[in-house]
From TrEMBL:
Cellular-component GO terms for this entry: membrane
Species of provenance: Arthrobacter cavernae
Protein keywords: Hydrolase
InterPro entries listed in its UniProt record: AB_hydrolase_1, AB_hydrolase_fold, AB_hydrolase_sf
Residue ranges occupied by any AB hydrolase-1 domain in the UniProt entry: 21-251
GO molecular function: hydrolase activity
Pfam families linked to this entry: Abhydrolase_1 (PF00561)
Protein name per the record: Alpha/beta hydrolase
Signal sequence, start to end: none
Database matches in SUPFAM superfamilies: alpha/beta-Hydrolases
């Protein structure tokens, strides 16, 4: 297993291909395991770097974190790129990973070449989406009070549906369930989508993220995800939007993503100086 120590934690990561760096940030609960097939395709278009975020799966410490903050994930992403001498990168974030990608672009704009946001979990941008996330937080806390290992399953069932959860092989269900301590640590921390105080980027802060951005929505996702994307498409300066079939688990190597990366790679670097 390939690991790098950053900010006091050992992160598991995988690297494929050459060229423009492409950083993949997974959602909650999840792991880079779910990005393996996509990473193979992305590596045909650049230097693809995927990793398990702190606390998740192969980056989980022997003793679970009590809390995990958004800024820790942001700093980890920056340190990972720095340790690999990679950047600026096309940053692809799915769900909570998309929220982290936005936080990363806000705090480290010089490390971002472009953004691909696969239904980012910035629920605070829309009142109805924020209410949906607050209700999900309540259900997760209620169910995990009796069984802490159920936290991840509760989130997956809400985001992807009961049928999708039941369709997963036992080993994948076990992987998800094993991330429950990290899910709860994020909920106890600051700034994550199911934290008590999630990230709230205002109009000026979003307008300051001056990077070309591809925003993808799925037809069968929770309505809250589409509400977020509609708001973001009007708030971020340079956006393209795409609707794809299926649910919230959007393919990071969807043809629209690959075409976007190729266009970004071919463009002059004037975007990075804006």
């Amino acid at each position: 297993m390939t690991r790098v120590r950053v900010n006091g934690v050992d992160l598991y990561y995988e690297e494929r291909g050459n060229g423009v760096p492409i950083l993949g940030i997974h959602g909650t609960p999840s792991s880079a395991v779910l990005w393996e097939d996509a990473a193979v395709e992305l590596a045909k278009h650049g230097r693809c770097i995927t990793y398990d975020r702190r606390g998740f799966h192969r980056s989980a410490p022997p003793v679970s974190f009590d809390r995990i903050d958004l800024l820790e994930h942001v700093d980890d992403a920056a340190a990972l790129l720095a340790s690999l001498h990679a950047g600026p990168a096309v940053v692809i974030g799915r769900s909570t990973g998309g929220e982290i990608a936005l936080g990363f672009a806000h705090h480290f704009p010089d490390k971002v070449k472009a953004l691909v946001l696969l239904e980012p979990a910035l629920f605070t941008i829309d009142p109805d989406a924020a209410a949906w996330a607050s209700e999900l937080r309540r259900r997760v806390l209620m169910k995990s009070g009796a069984d802490p290992s159920s936290a991840a399953e509760t989130v997956v069932r809400d985001a992807l549906g009961d049928e999708t959860w039941e369709s997963f092989p036992d080993e994948l269900k076990a992987m998800f369930s094993g991330t429950s301590p990290a899910v709860l640590a994020e909920m106890r921390g600051h700034g994550l989508d199911l934290s008590e105080d999630p990230l709230d980027l205002g109009e000026d802060e979003l307008a300051g993220i001056r990077r070309p951005t591809l925003i993808i929505s799925a037809e069968d996702s929770p309505a809250a995800c589409r509400l977020v994307n509609a708001r973001l498409s009007g708030a971020l300066p340079y956006t393209e939007t795409v609707f794809v079939p299926g649910g919230h688990l959007i393919n990071p190597a969807h043809p629209a993503v690959l075409a976007f990366i190729d266009r970004i790679t071919a463009r002059p670097s004037s975007w990075e100086q804006s």
